[in-house]
Specification:
466 residues; alpha/beta; Rossmann fold; twelve-stranded parallel sheet; two-stranded parallel ribbon; 12 helices; 14 strands; LRR_dom_sf
Length: 466
């Protein structure tokens, strides 16, 4: 069909040219409808309300789907059928707590390191229900191990979140640090200091072995304190930890473990003697060292008075000075001591039997010294010596003879003990360091065991010869 549009422009008239221009305008730029602003605002409001209505419908569908999925999980998963309180208890049992300090005193196994693959953080990665249960169970977040050195400063925000989830319960902190404590970590500890009931400090030497930068952290509610000191920490810095004990009037248990070969008490006089009226258990342990021992952990007894002490464990090199410190401490404190363990890592030359007479309340006695025979002999000859003793454990540090076993028999015949253990006794001579008990000795011990009702153990840890 012929159209004037395709004719050369020179052959078109004026009217045809105008008509062609109008036609092009309508073809390329179609006209828009014009509306009043009020009408547009009304249309926008209508569309917005419809969108909100659709969103509500979508949210309702998502909720119904979640409930259906939850019901399906309840049918297929026995865990989902349990009450929330019981699931919280199960989560608590997933935490690896270990209260036995003898297994590893350098590590507090009850403290959890922040790890997304371990409890309690792993619960947050399973499903929303488990995450809600974990966040609503503050008991899961009450134990925390913190890296206090500057390399752990990047985690201080995580430490604060962890401690915040434990509110309002008391917390147990383990701080592994050098002598320099990161400011962010110190801030996280300070915020929860009033709720700290258990605090373990695993301290290693900082630059040049300095320990004077370790801040004093007052814990008003502290009940249990464990301090494990690394090498080359001078003794005069121990007054920081003594001050920590001084600022914890409610302290009940205290453990101090260190290598004391490098220690020097030059400035030890900075800490005056003070009283902890509530402390019931004290453990002082010296870690083995290849260097000559200069200072004994029993020197800590010079600075404290413990009138309520019930359990005392001393594991160190027992010397004349340490026995003197122990005696002065007992006379000064007059504690109702019921359990005493003295383990000497070296031969002891000073008899300790005379100093034990100052603790007549003693019920459990553990001796790992070379002077154990003098204590047993005193028990056999003096009825007024440790009259309340019920449990006696001896681990000899020297060669035993037949006379030693005869003294033991005499003691067991006159004393009303409940248990008696004599360790490191081998059925045959072992390495020339021990004497095996004769058969007649064993017969007498068996008679006392079955006739007197005393639980007697004489053996090497694997076999009871009695």
């Amino acid at each position: 069909m012929w159209s004037p549009f395709f004719r050369p422009c020179s052959l078109l008239g004026l009217e045809q040219r105008v008509a062609c221009y109008v036609w092009l305008q309508h073809a390329l730029f179609p006209p828009t409808m014009s509306f009043a602003p009020s009408e547009l605002q009304k249309e926008i409001a209508t569309l917005s309300s419809e969108i909100e209505a659709q969103k509500a419908i979508l949210d309702d569908l998502i909720g119904r789907r979640s409930r259906a999925q939850r019901n399906l999980n309840a049918v297929l998963d026995p865990m989902a059928r349990l009450p929330l309180e019981l699931q919280s208890k199960i989560f608590l049992h997933c935490l690896c707590f270990d209260d036995d300090e003898e297994k590893n005193e350098d590590e507090d196994e009850r403290a959890s390191r922040p790890n997304s693959k371990l409890a309690p953080m792993v619960f947050s990665n399973v499903c929303q229900l488990w995450r809600d249960i974990a966040l609503c169970t503050p008991e899961l977040w009450t134990h925390l191990r913190m890296e206090g050195s500057p390399r752990g400063s990047n985690h201080f925000q995580l430490y604060e979140i962890w401690l915040e989830r434990s509110r309002p319960l008391p917390v147990s902190l383990t701080l592994a640090s050098t002598s320099i404590l990161a400011e962010g970590v110190k801030h996280a500890i300070d915020r929860s200091a009033r709720r700290v009931e258990e605090f373990s400090l695993l301290l290693s030497a900082g630059p040049r072995g300095r320990g004077d930068r370790m801040p004093r952290l007052p814990f008003q509610s502290l009940k249990r304190l464990v301090i494990v000191v690394g090498d080359q920490i001078p003794f005069y810095y121990v007054h920081h930890w003594i001050d920590l004990m001084r600022m914890s009037p409610g302290l009940l248990h205290c453990t101090f473990v260190a290598k004391f070969s490098h220690l020097d008490d030059t400035n030890g006089g900075k800490s005056d003697c003070f009283t902890l009226a509530a402390l019931k258990e004290l453990r002082l342990k010296e870690r083995p060292s290849v260097f000559p021992v200069k200072v004994n952990p029993t020197k800590l007894l010079r600075y404290i008075t413990l009138p309520a002490l019930e359990r005392l464990h001393i594991h160190c090199s027992i010397t004349a000075d340490s026995v003197s410190d122990f005696s002065a401490f007992i006379l000064r404190s007059s504690p109702p001591l019921r359990s005493l363990a003295i383990e000497s890592i070296t031969a002891i030359s000073t008899p300790i039997a005379e100093y034990l007479s100052a603790v007549p309340t003693l019920q459990t006695l553990t001796l790992a010294t070379s002077d154990w025979v003098s204590v047993v002999e005193r028990l056999a000859t003096d009825p007024a010596f440790l009259p309340n003793l019920e449990h006696l454990t001896c681990t000899p540090r020297r060669t035993r003879s037949r006379g030693d076993f005869e003294i033991v028999i005499c003691m067991l015949e006159v004393r009303s003990l409940r248990t008696f253990r004599l360790n490191d006794v081998f059925p045959i001579p072992f390495g020339g360091s021990s004497v095996a008990p004769d058969e007649d000795i064993l017969v007498e011990l068996r008679g006392i065991r079955y006739g007197g009702g005393i639980d007697i153990y004489v053996g090497d840890g694997k076999r009871n010869l009695v």
